[in-house]
Each structure stands twice: as C-alpha cells, then as structure tokens.
Design goal:
The protein is mainly β and 285 residues long. The protein is built from two helices and 21 strands. The strands form three sheets. Strands 10, 13, 14, 15, 16, 17, 18, 19, 20 and 21 form a ten-stranded antiparallel β-sheet that branches. Strands 1-8-7-4-5-6-3-2 form an eight-stranded antiparallel β-sheet, with helices on one face. It has a three-stranded mixed β-sheet with strand order 9-11-12, with no helix packed on it. Bound molecules: zinc ion (ZN).
C-alpha cells in the first residue's frame, strides 16, 4: 500500500505524555488539501503503539498495524456538509500508557451533476403489494451492516470488480421518471450482461439475495468496517457465509432491479460512511 501524497506533516499530532520517539513521521495523510464528500483518506501513524482508535465525523474508523506503524482508512460520507471536523486518536503505548491526539480535517462542498433516468414505474412508485418486501429487505441489509467482521479480511489494493469504464459517477443526483430520489451512492461500471464480477478484495459474503431495488445483490464484508455492495447481477455464484479471495467471481453482470440496462453498480462503505469506490482503489494502490 502506498501513500498517494504525503502531506506536509500535519502540525499536530499525538499529544504525548511523555513525548514518544516516533518511528518516522507521527502522522501522514494521503490527502494534501481539503477533502470532498465521498473521499477516502489513508492515515499512517508512525508511532509504535499497542492499540489505536480513530474517531472522525461521528464514526469510529479501525486502525490496523502495518510494518511497525498503524494505518487506517477514513471515509468522508457522501452527505458530509462542508466544514471543519476533528480527527481524534487514542492509543496505547507499549507499556500500557494511554496517549491521545487530535487534528482537524476540512471538507469542502462539491456539486454533483444530476442524471435523469427512465425506469419501470414500479421502481419509482412501488405498488402497495411490495411495500412490506421493501421494508423487510431494508431491515435485512441494515442488520448485515450492523454485524460486520471486526477483523481485517482485506489486504492490498482494492480493484474494480469488472474491467469496464465508469458510466455513472459516485454522488450523482438522480431523477427517476421526473422524480428526484436518493443520490447515487456508488459507481456504475460498464459491462455486458454475463460479464464475470470479481470480488474487489477478499472478504466474507454477508448477503447474496434478490432485493427489490438492487436486484440480485452480493454484499461482501471485507472486515474492519469495509463493505462492498454489488448490485443488478444476472447470476450469483456465492452464498451468504462464503469466504472469497480477491478476484474470485461472485456473479455476473445483469440488469435486475431498478436499472435502464445491464451494468455493475458498486457501493463501498467504511464504518457506514458511503464513499467513492474509485477513491478507495486510489489510496490502497
Ligand atoms: Zn448505480
């Protein structure tokens, strides 16, 4: 894993009692300037610690040890308002002493383009007969997100699940048949129906199911709060509980659920923050 940009060392950092000899820079961050909604940042904390916890944007982002340092992926949720936020670190030194630190993260506004899509009317105003199903599925998905693996299952760079180009960016405002709906929380990648869909990284299949809006859907729990949601498949070749390696085929591109044609939809969440999957690829490269 490499740091894309080593920002000038953030002037801060671990406010230590007593000062601790840092191995390398105490904190490096992969973003050089203000962040934008959906961006993923890689923090690298070069101090020897036994444990580390990071909090930002009201979420806890788990850190993991790498070569004697600690790394963490921090995600700026799509809905984050522009402003200045505090990043807090709490760690334990070898020997048991607690240390804490804080720094600020600035988020600037970003204007997302709007897309107008024409879909079957039942996906814009669902008939009464399917409302209970939609509610049940939404509770099931929520339960999956509430029970993710605390251990890191992923390693190395994340990769696109299909080779196709980006056809609809993260964050686009979406208007279905003239009616505004939730913004696009993932990316749409080009792929003909039947194109194999590969796991973007290792993980455990947390859900493999036909859902009303997202069609045949595979949710991969990558561990440490990282999750992939792969939607609109024509076929699924895994089931809940399966453990998959990075690159393993989990299904095929399709056009199931609320779509205008075959493509792969890929959402990524980090501790619940909806982030741009391409940003995750970038920082873990
Ligand atoms: Zn999509």
């Amino acid at each position: 894993m490499r740091l894309r940009i080593l920002a000038p060392l953030l002037p801060l950092l671990l406010l230590m009692h007593p000062p601790v000899p840092a191995s390398g820079q105490p904190l490096a961050i992969s973003a050089a300037g203000p962040l934008t909604p959906g961006e993923v940042v890689l923090l690298r904390i070069g101090t020897r610690l036994d444990s580390l916890e990071i909090r930002a944007f009201g979420r806890s982002f788990p850190a993991f040890p790498v070569d004697g340092a600690w790394n963490a992926l921090v995600g700026v949720d799509l809905g984050t308002k522009p402003g200045t936020y505090t990043l807090r670190l709490e760690g334990t030194l070898p020997g048991g002493e607690k240390i804490t630190g804080a720094d600020t993260l600035t988020v600037r506004g970003k204007s997302f383009p709007t897309r107008h899509l024409k879909v079957e009317p039942k996906y814009v105003t669902p008939p009464a007969a399917v409302l209970a199903r939609i509610e049940r599925e939404s509770a099931e998905v929520e339960a999956v997100f509430g029970a993710l693996s605390p251990a890191r299952l992923w390693s190395g760079p994340f990769a696109k699940p299909v080779p196709g180009a980006l056809i609809s960016e993260f964050g686009k405002r979406t208007v279905y048949n003239g009616q505004p709906r939730k913004p696009h929380t993932g990316v749409d990648l080009r792929g003909a129906a039947g194109t194999p869909v590969a796991a973007p990284n290792a993980g455990r299949v947390a859900l493999a199911q036909d859902l009303y809006y997202s069609g045949l859907t595979v949710i991969l729990d990558h561990g440490l709060g990282a999750c992939s949601y792969l939607a609109h498949l024509s076929e699924m070749s895994v089931q809940a509980g399966d453990v998959v390696k990075k690159g393993e085929i989990v299904g095929k591109v399709g056009a199931t659920g609320r779509v205008t044609g075959p493509h792969l939809h890929w959402t990524v969440t980090l501790s619940g923050a909806r982030v741009d999957p391409l940003s995750l690829i970038d920082v873990t490269r």
